[in-house]
Amino acid sequence: MSIAMGGHIECYLDIASFFSYIALADLLPNLTALEGYGIQVDLIPTLIGGINHLSGNKPPWMLPAKAKYLEADSQRAARRVSKPRIAFPKDFLSMSNTISPLRAMLFIKKNYPEATFIAAMHFLFDKFWSPPHANLTVDEELAAVLAAATETPEGGPRLFGEEDVRRIMDGRAEMKDTLKQNTARAVELGAFGAPWFWVVNEEGKGEPFFGSDRFNHIYQHLGLPFQDVALVKTAKL
């Protein structure tokens, strides 16, 4: 069997999107393997509210049946990626306009090493979705989370010093157009929500994928070997 080498994954994520965090948690352990296959992964901060507005979509909780279903499904998804503590904040609606932290992420992406950007994104996602749920729309809380950011949500070396935090907070304004462009780009690629993926294989063929549970389809499109869902046979079978 020949294994494809090369390709590109554009991954459009918003901190305020629960399933964006699920997708990120699923993707992070596989980044090294994807790099080994020559697959470039680009994590792109994107405003889900802007995607909904431009695409004409509405948040799932606006439909009562979807909202009820998400109560159970979100926790199933969290357990699968070993994030059992994460949950929707009680004040989610007032916290969900994440323009400020997304601009901060874009500034970090532009001015710091990729590993720092990825670690910072993971840390901010975790602080937003884990109790007591940091409100990243408030400058003081965003600055405090950046100051506390470590290599992983569980700990490790600090990512930023005091001067770095001031630089990031001050630099958010210059990322206004970049965030708009990222959001428009996602919609141009067909996005109606997040996480949204645009995946180009080694033959140059691009396809869209939506949701946190589409990695089997993504890897198949890229021609990568992977283990799909399969029952484990018992001795009786």
Automatic annotation (TrEMBL):
Record family assignment: Belongs to the GST superfamily. Kappa family.
Top-level class of the enzyme under EC nomenclature: transferase
Positions of transmembrane segments: none
Keywords tagged on the record: Transferase
UniProt keyword annotation of Membrane present: no
PANTHER family registered for this protein in UniProt: GLUTATHIONE S-TRANSFERASE KAPPA, GLUTATHIONE S-TRANSFERASE KAPPA-RELATED
Keyword Transferase: yes
GO CC field: mitochondrion; peroxisome
GO BP terms: glutathione metabolic process
Species of origin: Stachybotrys elegans
Residue ranges constituting the DSBA-like thioredoxin domain according to the UniProt record: 9-222
Catalysed reactions listed for this entry: RX + glutathione = an S-substituted glutathione + a halide anion + H(+)
EC number: 2.5.1.18
Protein name: Glutathione S-transferase kappa 1
GO MF annotation list: glutathione peroxidase activity; glutathione transferase activity
